[in-house]
Automatic annotation (TrEMBL):
Cited Pfam families: Glutaredoxin
Organism from which the protein derives: Staphylococcus saprophyticus subsp. saprophyticus (strain ATCC 15305 / DSM 20229 / NCIMB 8711 / NCTC 7292 / S-41)
Lineage: Bacteria, Bacillati, Bacillota, Bacilli, Bacillales
Name this protein carries in UniProt: Putative glutaredoxin
Domain Glutaredoxin: 4-59
InterPro entries, per database record: Glutaredoxin, Thioredoxin-like_sf
């Protein structure tokens, strides 16, 4: 099973887009809002400084790569 973790922040249109996209395709994900200091520090540990930052099966995705998301999650 695929594991998706999305680091987000409030008022982030790309964050909302990817969360809605995954939900529309019945893909479960875990959201970590960086207003929580622990989550912000986790994200920075990956040298990520912008949201959404996605961990797709443990692999960092610093920008939304729809082709990679769709192929990994088998979304048509």
């Amino acid at each position: 099973m695929n594991e998706i973790i999305i680091y987000t922040q409030n008022d982030c249109p790309p964050c909302t887009f990817i969360k809605n996209y995954l939900a529309d395709n019945d893909v479960a994900y875990r959201e970590k809002n960086i207003s929580n200091t622990q989550y912000r520090n986790e994200m920075i540990d990956y040298d990520a400084f912008a949201t959404p930052f996605i961990l797709l099966n443990g692999e960092p995705m610093h920008q939304i790569d729809m082709d990679k998301i769709n192929s990994t999650l088998n979304i048509k």
